[in-house]
Amino acid sequence: MKKVKVLILIVLILISTTICTDTNNVCAKNNYFPDNYTGYRYPLVPGTDEWDMLPDHQTMCDACQIPENVLKSLTTEQLVETILYYPLLCDMYAYDTFTDGVNEMTSHFNGILELLDRTDYANEASNILYGEKTAKKDLSTQRNNGADIASILQDNLQKEDRLSYIQKRFLQVLLFQKKALMNNSDEIIDNVSVFRSGQRIDENCFLKKSDAVKSRMEVAGELSYIYSELAPGTVKKLKIKDVQIEAYYDSTINEIWISPEGNLYIFNIPDVSEEEKGEVRKKYSKVYGVEPIREGTAKYNCHSYAWYSNSKKNKYWIDSPEKIIEESSKVQEVSKLETQKNDIYVYYKSSGEMYNGINHSAVITSFKNLPKSKRTFTLTSKWGRAGLYEHSEDKCPYYYWRNEDTNEDYRVPRDVKYFHLQ
Fold this sequence. Notes:
single chain, alpha+beta, about 425 residues
């Protein structure tokens, strides 16, 4: 099976590198990269017939790997730019947190792995996101001078306007990774890290939360956007299949902004913005060929939809269903051929030991039996803070093959289990 898939991939790449007579394909390829792009050009990109022919997520990942000789020849600036146009960068939205999504992508994309091995990656990421002056100016004496650093950010954040929400979110996660603090001495990297709204803001940091009570609308014209993340709602007890768990009720979004004076403002907004939802919706449509059944929201996640309630009024966010699986007598693990409609299909993490942590829960919408006692599934699931989708089991952000799979008639997904609820 693996040989067959590799052959298909090679053929598609060869087709993509020849002269394409299809006008739509030519336009899609030409428009995918900006005019001033200097990074690696992926041979297959969303919006083309060749991309649509890729049969599953694993093959998509394989098609996007950067050749080793090219990878090592890219400057760090070019490598960051290359990753910003990684066709599967939107996968980070399919997880409960952006950090979880980036960590999962890192396991399957050699571009991010290479970047994290470079000591200057945080500096280049900061340069692209916040402006060249921010990354290159010596800020070692500016720790307590909020106005100075704020003016630098204010002068250079216009570069961010050319970036999509998805690209900005990735760069923000990249800058908040612990390795960035360890490998880069610029003060901006250290200080940007305190923007995480769930952490206490260091009293010695020049960025202090303002005492002034202002609404976002009152100061929006003066502020520069810095970061956004999920703000978990009120912790409440839920009983699911006779097992009591804790869940977050009515989660929201925290946005962090900075003023020209260096004051930090944290604004809480009810949900994901319409602009961001629209961008992610369009991206998933091109990458996976799916349209949302419901729009994106931070109110509930995949585990809540699958294990608790599929109502559109659901406002509970469940971190993991593991306790339900382990303790409930009303949850029964079944084999693939024993599954029924509305059973739960669980994807486990694709790196490390087998069945090492749950990645995603989905509801089985339908299935199709194949020769040799095989079965494929159509699923419905909530993709992180993005929308609710009906999708195949293999053309979605959570699907990977087993490395040892040699079955030529069927692709064996890595680390999945099936559960029937009584």
